[in-house]
Amino acid sequence: MLRSWAASPEAVGFPCVEQVALLRRHLRQHTPEVVALMTSLPPSELTAAPWLAYTRAAWGIESGLHQRLDVSHREDACRVRRPRAMRLMAMLRRFSNSLFREWRLRQKSLNRRRPRIFLAS
User: Fold this and answer.
1) What are the distances in angstroms from CA 71 to CA 63, 64, 85?
2) How far out from the chain centre does Cα 39 lie?
3) Confidence of residue 17 (pLDDT cuts 50, 70, 90)
4) Average pLDDT of the chain?
5) Strands 33-39 and 2-6
6) What span, in angstroms and rounded, lies between the C-alpha atoms of 7 and 13?
7) Of residues 58, 90, 85, 96, the one with CA closest to residue 75
8) CA distance 74 to 97
9) Between 61 and 16, whose confidence is greater?
10) What is the dihedral of CA 36, 42, 46, 51, to 10 degrees?
11) Proportion of the chain above pLDDT 70, given as a percent
12) Going by fewer Cβ within 10 Å, which terminus of the chain is more open, N or C?
């Protein structure tokens, strides 16, 4: 559910804001959360339906990258807390992930279309 309304930069305390919204997200295993959104487009140019579609598309990109990093590098379990060390580790993880994806795309035999047989007699 997305509720939006017109706003001024002075009222929100953020420059160039024309519209704000509250979005209630229902994630599968998590409790619902409310996310605040802001845009520089007025309500006449950006209605709720396209705004919701753009927001979902952005989350899909972020969720896909985050899932790959968490699975390949266990990023959520990382205990490093120093900002410079976290930045360096993040850069190296993303670089290694990109190298692997590039290498995987260049492989000749990917067996994408062939079904896998898990139980053989």
Assistant:
1) 12, 11, 20
2) 18
3) very high
4) 82
5) unpaired
6) 10
7) 90
8) 12
9) 16
10) -10
11) 87
12) C
Those residues whose C-beta lies under 8 Å from the C-beta of residue 97, and which sit 6 or more positions away, are 68, 69, 72, 73
The helix or strand, by DSSP H or E, that contains position 34, with its residue range, turns out to be strand 33-39
Pair of tokens at residue 91: 């850069």
**What does the alpha-carbon distance between residue 58 and residue 41 come to, in Å, rounded to a whole number?**
17
Name the one residue in this structure whose structure tokens are 């295993």: 29
* Residue indicated by tokens 């060390």: 85
Q: What is the DSSP letter of 64?
A: H
Q: How far is CA 37 from the centre of its chain?
A: 14
Q: Give yes or no for a contact between 16 and 24, defined as CB atoms under 8 angstroms apart.
A: no
pLDDT at 38 over 70: yes
Per-residue exposure over 48-71, b if at least 16 CB sit within 10 Å of its own CB, e if not: eeebbeebeeeeeeeeeeeebbee
pLDDT higher than 60, residue 121: no
Measured torsion, CA atoms of residues 14, 16, 21, 25, in degrees rounded to the nearest 10:
-70
